[in-house]
Design goal:
The chain is α/β, with parallel strands linked by helices. The chain has eleven helices and 13 strands. The structure holds zinc ion. Zinc ion binds next to loops.
Length: 337
């Protein structure tokens, strides 16, 4: 029997821009989390695993933690992933066709169990452990609205993983099959085509090309430089009453309603937690979503309305998820198959 009290859990969050590594005492008390991060290098397929090992070694040294005290490493990565092999494959943001994670990390930290999960499935575990209330936590969805849209689902106290760990790719749910707008995945009319950061930007550029809506305010904000237009400028444009910006934001919110209506109907959850970079403009997104469940539920959803929340864990949500993953795995908690 190991004495759990002086043991440590490692959590790693791997994204297109940042790699974050944390260690925490096995009780996962928030005040005991120590973390570091670095920009995601893409020099070769081992750049990420090298960065993870480097950051982990630094944190251990700074906090006087020896290898023998580590009882598990959780990796939450942008997907798609192959949970069994421990690789990421075909990820447009990370570069290479296949990125080995588990094997190179195991070589430097042998004998320590390593678990891999995709970032959104990890994030929902983080919310389950660190944030959700007792009465809701066994039926929640996490939705990240960022470059793309991704999801993680806990239903009846079980994390939905799918056969390789890529379940709940909700951003590619079709919300407008006849759409002329193409998604990065190749399909037309995916939810993230309208409501993600990339989608909002692309729609604005399309409308600028069409030249049918007044774009003065948006172009003013961007100093007449179209290359400076991102979701941020478009949401600002809508706040200032710009016609083109308002249309793009209205579409973003409308399809957000359709998307969460679908997801809610599939899983009948107690709460939907939002996160991701687009939540910087949450005042223009969340209130209309809450409103729809109050005044117009039948149009978008037939179930009892869920609560709509924004995670308080912010950028840390993936890292927290990676820590919770290890904790739940070591406890043989039935939440993870
Ligand atoms: Zn798609």
């Amino acid at each position: 029997m190991i004495n759990i009290e002086d043991k440590f859990i490692v959590g790693v969050d791997i994204g297109g821009t940042w790699i974050r590594v944390a260690i925490c005492t096995a009780d996962l008390k928030e005040e005991n989390i120590k973390s570091k991060n670095t920009r995601t290098l893409k020099e070769n397929e081992y750049s990420i695993s090298n960065s993870v090992c480097q950051l982990l070694s630094e944190i251990m040294l700074e906090n006087d933690v020896e290898k023998e005290k580590l009882i598990g490493i959780g990796l939450a990565s942008a997907g798609p992933i192959d949970m069994e092999k421990g690789n990421v494959f075909n990820n447009a943001n990370l570069g290479f066709r296949e990125i080995p994670l588990k094997r190179p990390i195991r070589e430097k930290f042998p004998g320590i169990p390593i678990y891999l999960i995709n970032d959104c499935n990890g994030a929902v575990l983080g919310i389950h452990y660190f944030e959700a209330e007792e009465e809701e936590k066994d039926n929640i969805i996490y939705i990240t609205v960022s470059t793309g849209i991704g999801g993680g689902v806990i239903c009846n106290g079980r994390l939905m993983l799918g056969k390789e760990g890529n379940a709940a790719e909700i951003g590619h749910g079709l919300v407008d099959p006849k759409s002329k707008f193409q998604c990065n995945c190749g399909a037309y009319g995916c939810w993230e085509v309208f409501s993600s950061g990339t989608g909002v930007k692309s729609r604005a550029l399309d409308y600028l090309k069409d030249n049918t809506l007044n774009s003065d305010i948006l172009l003013g904000i961007a100093n007449n430089d179209k290359s400076k237009i991102t979701a941020k400028e478009i949401f600002q444009g809508a706040r200032e009453g710009g016609e083109l910006s308002k249309k793009v934001v209205d579409d973003c919110v409308f399809y957000m309603k359709v998307g969460i209506g679908l997801v809610n109907n599939f899983y009948d959850v107690s709460s939907i937690y939002f996160g991701g970079a687009m939540m910087k403009d949450k005042e223009q997104i969340i209130p209309p979503l809450i409103e729809q469940f109050k005044i117009d539920p039948l149009r978008f959803t037939i179930n009892h309305p869920p609560k709509i929340k924004v995670t308080k864990l912010g950028d840390e949500v993936g890292l927290r998820g990676a820590l919770a993953l290890v904790k739940y795995k070591l406890e043989n908690n039935p939440i993870i198959p």
